[in-house]
Design brief:
Shape: globular
Structural class: alpha/beta
Strand order of the largest sheet: 4-1-5-6
Distance between the termini: 43 Å
Radius of gyration: 15 Å
Pfam families: ATP-synt_F
CATH superfamily: ATPase, V1 complex, subunit F
Keywords: Hydrogen ion transport, Ion transport, Transport
GO molecular function, one term: proton-transporting ATPase activity, rotational mechanism
Family: Belongs to the V-ATPase F subunit family.
CATH class: Alpha Beta
Number of domains: 1
Length: 121
């Protein structure tokens, strides 16, 4: 009998996205922080706002922290975060956390996304 120990303890969702996207998820009731002994400040934040002025190195650093956390099941990436991580994501070897790009409010869809939307409509 095989046990999927990879997912049973993964109960959190993390976000690297623009402020509007993060606020939308907060409105659904997703709590973006929790008390933890693993953080210097005692609170670990699962939301990281990526804006036009965010240094890509900061995005990569936060992403690497997220993928190492054993309680995170999924990481949602806004377009700017996904662009900053285009070389990092293929390096990921483990199945969890899952990484998924989501559309951003202020970013035009890519050509691939437009083609996909046309096929689906």
């Amino acid at each position: 009998m095989t046990h999927n120990t990879g997912l049973s303890s993964r109960t959190k969702i993390a976000f690297l996205a623009d402020e509007a996207t993060i606020n939308g998820f907060k409105l659904t009731g997703i709590n973006g922080s929790e008390w933890t002994c693993q953080s210097v400040h005692g609170v670990f934040n699962y939301f990281y706002v990526v804006s036009d002025t965010t240094d890509p190195a900061e995005v990569i650093s936060k992403y690497n922290i997220f993928i190492e956390r054993k309680e995170i099941a999924m990481i949602f990436l806004g377009r700017k975060a996904a662009d900053a991580l285009k070389d990092e994501i293929p390096k990921k070897k483990e199945m969890f956390p899952l990484v998924m790009e989501i559309p951003s409010k202020n970013t035009a869809p890519s050509i691939a996304e437009i083609k996909l939307m046309k096929r689906l409509s």
